[in-house]
Amino acid sequence: MIRIATRGSELALWQAHWVRDALRRAHDIDAELVVLKTRGDRVLDRSLSAMEGKGFFTKEIEDALLAGRAEIAVHSYKDLPTDQVPGLMIAAVPPRAAANDLLLIHRDRVDASREPWLLAEGARVGTSATRRIAQLRDRRSDLEVVEIRGNVPTRVCKAREGLCDAVILAKAGLDRLRLDLSGLVVVDLLETGFLPAPAQGALAVQCHVDDTKTAAVLRSLHDEATASCVEAERRLLGLFEGGCSLPLGCTARLSGRKMELSANWLDGEGRMRSCAVTAGTPESAASLAYERLTQP
Asked: Would strands 166-170 and 31-36 be described as parallel, antiparallel, or unpaired?
């Protein structure tokens, strides 16, 4: 029996169940979930950017691995700090779900004349992510940002019930939970140049570095193309020495043997900088993008 450490949100449980079922299909291995509450789950009255430290949704999960209370941890990869915890390793990066963000608009606040966003002037948009707030204000300075926390279903309900006029959420989470979006108008923000968080839509399956048996089993879940793209995005994040509160959006894709990386970043003077680069490796793509974004 393998124990899988996970957060207790609906999305986190979906992800852990996906890994459990994949291991059962591939290796006929039974697994049980060890559900833990992280600091990010407990503190809901402050935005993540106002909280000190890193690993708001991962530290308690990683501590369980280090203490031997679980053999595997499943994370939303974007939640992991770029510095790997000593003693732990990412043993598998499964195939990625959609990486883009969606804007969900209450139908009474749609303005068809304001393409591509379709949001009425002065609309109240719910999000707590620094990256999303920066891109939102760069593209639509008339909009009001309402900082909201909570799980994915809760935030969808806030838009449907009119507590805010729209919310921005990752498509991957909405797809995985198969949430009812009736009464809402959906806009794909990637088509507007609005970029996702590094590693958004990807999972990281973690184990102890000394647990070679578990690591070997987890390799059956690994997708090298996804891992390469995520590596480019997270290397760029690491060059900024940032975490989830950094106003950086980026997305990478493989084109033949080349890595294409698009990114935007709000600099310290409030200017949105953007670039699109092509390079031979994830590392060189990240380095080139960082150079372009930070050049005077």
From this structure: unpaired
The residue behind tokens 């915890």 is 85
Write the Ramachandran bin of 109: left for phi over 0, alpha for psi from -120 to 50, otherwise beta: alpha
Report the predicted TM-score, pTM, of the whole model to 2 decimal places. Answer: 0.92
Residue 224: Cβ within 10 Å count: 9
pLDDT digits (tens, 9 = 90+) for 108-158: 999 999 989 999 999 999 998 999 999 999 999 999 999 887 889 999 999
Q: In b/e form, how buried is each residue of 235-251, taking b as 16+ CB within 10 angstroms?
A: bbbbbbebbbbbbbbbb
- Written as six digits, the tokens of 119 are 């949001």
Residue 37: which residues within 8 A CB-CB, separation 6 or more?
Answer: 7, 8, 60
Question: In 3D, which of 223, 218, 173, 177 has the Cα closest to residue 31?
Answer: 218
Residue-range domains of the chain with CATH: 1-94+202-222 (3.40.190.10), 101-192 (3.40.190.10), 223-296 (3.30.160.40)
Which are the catalytic amino acids?
79
Task: Kindly report, residue by residue over 58-88, the tens digit of the pLDDT.
Answer: 999 999 999 999 999 999 999 999 999 999 9
